[in-house]
Write a structure and sequence with these properties.
Glycoprotein, Type 4 Pilin, mainly alpha, 3 strands, elongated, 146 residues
Length: 146
């Protein structure tokens, strides 16, 4: 009988020291793993922006085949999902050229579209995490001609 009382006394829960040790171990693991995960998040946003730019570029090329020109800078990439108001242009339009409208890059900034471009027929860019021209790392610009 005394052994059962002792067993019951120690099996009722964790002590404060045991809980503190577990918390310290979890904190150490988080401090080691956390920065690596956030580094992967940044590189995945860069890859997503490159992929979106390539996807929109393919849609722009298809638009050009149907309409005999790229959308104007004023029309922007919205022309890939919105039928033109002009009846003559609407007759040529075979869109939508994208399943979903793509206005924002992975950082929530608007894509910059310009035609004609200085380096190609059109220029499509993401300004990176900072939303400003230039920069390096996450803040570096991503362009369609690169």
């Amino acid at each position: 009988m005394p052994i059962q009382r002792i067993a019951r006394k120690y099996s009722q829960g964790f002590t404060l020291i045991e809980l503190l040790i577990v918390m310290v171990i979890l904190g150490l693991l988080a401090s080691l793993v956390g920065p690596r995960l956030f580094g992967q998040l940044d590189s995945s946003k860069i890859k997503a922006a490159r992929t979106q730019i390539e996807m929109v570029g393919a849609a722009l090329d298809t638009y050009r085949l149907d309409m005999s020109r790229y959308p104007t800078t004023e029309q922007g990439i919205a022309a890939l999902t919105e039928k033109p108001a002009d009846p003559a242009q609407a007759a040529l339009w075979r869109g939508p050229y994208l399943k979903k409208r793509v206005d924002k890059d992975p950082w929530g900034n608007s894509y910059v579209y310009k035609t004609p471009g200085a380096k190609s027929d059109y220029e499509l860019s993401s300004l990176g995490a900072d939303g400003k021209e230039g920069g390096s790392g996450n803040d570096a610009d991503i362009h369609s001609w690169e």
